[in-house]
Design brief:
The termini are far apart. Helices cover about 45% and strands about 20% of the residues. The protein has one domain. It is α/β, with parallel strands linked by helices.
Length: about 290
């Protein structure tokens, strides 16, 4: 079944991107205008984040978000046949931030959010950075899709680590230089363990893993943001957030990350993944020991 699916997707991916974007526009009309896929979730999230905006303004952001969301799906499909040169032409970045860190002999972490198109950014960055890039992924239950995504994400040399078994997956890298990418804006599964702070003015739980690992190993942290100058082109902006995480208090890295992410979303609100329920976990005063926002 895998080879049948892969062959079919490969043939589709050979179409020029301008043709695939026509398909994207059709899927947009069906998914958003006709079926309203997760539209209620998207609009509710936008109301939480931008209460000062009118309903019409939030609907406009939602419409642009769905265009970006479906474009990213089509662009991921294009990855099946796209060459490294093709991706490099369409994704730029200030990769020298990583080159300078690499010269110090230290590993590093990249903290990023669900901003489009993180799949293309992974391919572009892993190909040009001097580090071996470790990409953390959540295994997909469907074995065909899981195998397909692992193949696509590793095609430029990334080493994939399952999020469900991170402790063991990291063992071979304890004494080796690496750069690990961590999508740090997921909704936490254990609210009593996560770090709590204000995000868009609302108490929000953040997963503690990225910061915990950085502080424990004193691993430099780089924040990444993805901008979209125009359709089909992306710019990765890297910022050295902290070279000595072990010197910081608990929560400081996460608060900095949240502030950077919020500002990036405000700058291009249609670029973030509004269809996930970011605020589904509610704050409880019993979590006060994990409140890190000062």
């Amino acid at each position: 079944m895998y080879y049948i699916v892969y062959s079919l997707l490969y043939l589709i991916s050979l179409l020029p991107l301008r043709v695939l974007y026509i398909l994207s526009d059709i899927l947009y009309l069906i998914g958003y205008r006709l079926l309203g896929y997760r539209r209620k979730v998207v609009l509710n999230n936008l109301e939480i984040a931008f209460p000062e905006k009118s309903l019409a303004e939030r609907k406009k952001i939602a419409g642009k978000f769905y265009h970006n969301f479906i474009d990213s799906f089509i662009e991921t499909l294009k990855m099946v046949s796209a060459s490294d040169a093709y991706i490099q032409k369409r994704v730029s970045g200030n990769w020298e931030v990583l080159s300078e860190l690499y010269k110090t002999g230290r590993s590093c972490q990249i903290h990023l959010g669900h901003t489009f198109n993180w799949e293309w950014a992974n391919l572009a960055g892993s190909k040009v950075m001097p580090y071996t890039f470790l990409g953390v992924y959540m295994p997909i239950k469907n074995q065909v899709l899981d195998r397909l995504f692992r193949k696509l994400r590793a095609k430029s040399g990334s080493v994939l680590l399952p999020a469900t078994n991170m402790r063991n997956a990291m063992l071979p890298w304890r004494n080796r230089q690496y750069c690990i990418g961590l999508v740090a804006d997921q909704s936490p599964s254990g609210p009593e363990k996560c770090l709590w702070l204000n995000f868009f003015g609302k108490p929000t739980g953040f997963v503690p893993g990225p910061e915990t690992g950085a502080r424990a190993g004193n691993i430099p942290v780089v924040f990444a943001n993805i901008e979209k100058p125009k359709r089909g082109y992306y710019k990765v902006v890297l910022t050295l957030a902290e070279e000595e995480p072990a010197s910081l208090e608990k929560g400081e890295i996460t608060v900095r990350y949240a502030r950077q992410l919020e500002q990036a979303i405000r700058n291009q609100p249609d670029m973030w993944l509004w269809s996930h329920r970011r605020w589904k976990v509610k704050y409880d005063p019993k979590f006060s020991d994990h409140w890190v926002d000062k």
